Amino acid sequence: MRTLKELRSHSSSQLETSSWVFLTPLILVLFFATAFPFAYSTYMSFFNWNWGNRFSFIGLQNYSDVLANQEFWASLFRTVGFTLLAVTFETIIGFGLALVVDRAGRQAGWMRSVLIAPLMVSGIAVSLTWKIILDPTIGILPRLLGHIGIHHLNLLGDPKISLLSVAGLDTWWQTGFVFIILCAGLQALPRDPFEAAQIDGATAWKSFRYLTFPLMMPLILVVAGIRTIDCLKLFALVFGATGGGPGQTTESVQLLAYRTGFKASQMSLSMTMMVIYVLFTVAGVVAVVSLSRRRRNRA
Predict the structure, then answer these.
(1) 99: containing domain
(2) CATH of the domain at 200
(3) The total number of structural domains that make up the chain
(4) Residue 61 has pLDDT above 50, yes or no
(5) Mean pLDDT confidence for 236-245
(6) pLDDT at 12 (0 to 100)
(7) What is the pTM of this model?
(8) Handedness of CA 119, 124, 126, 129 (dihedral sign)
(9) C-beta separation of 250 from 159 below 8 A
């Protein structure tokens, strides 16, 4: 007969084996969808390939050209600016809607359905639909605003507000994601501290400030981090809504790489742009995580 120690070791080994069996498909998908394309792009960034027979090793020349390219840096700043705007809007509005729906009672069901409905639409469909709605000539929104005295409004065609308008489109599209996660987080909060605060005579504002908000802050940061990573992959909205215009005021790094590779036929240079962009993004994530750990250690 096996001893208790042997049975435990056998069961733990079986558990580890079954865990790897379930994780293997996910690892394979991540490898072929992420790791392999990045490795291949990194390899091709050391060559000069323009969709033809020209295929020569040029070392770090592509990296030098990209880092000296003002369009790349401008598109990088625009992408980061869009991300800051969109994540800020979505987090604030999503949290506010979650607080409202959490207190809605019987009306919460249909309100959740309405708020998460935009998530079911693809990015290119959202951009094309809102492009028609906001069109200054045939769009329904400029016509409605014209009846109340607001004329010549071109939200996607004005260089001063075009990036803000694209951030607004993303806010309409993805706020439901922030809302549904934070709404679930509010429902999972422990009730004892709130009941104790109510007995002590705390107002609704004090309960929110000293209980709800601090308890929700870790989840808010997680959701904001997820949305930040997603917003940094800006392509579909600007491709469908503005095409990077007017001028280049809404052109993201992804759209610049697309234009460089598929329109200018400089594929290796396009791959180099994305490799550098990924490295910058990873460096930013590592820096944020390191700062968060330091703050936790100090706390």
Answers:
(1) 75-253
(2) 1.10.3720.10
(3) 1
(4) yes
(5) 89
(6) 53
(7) 0.85
(8) negative
(9) no
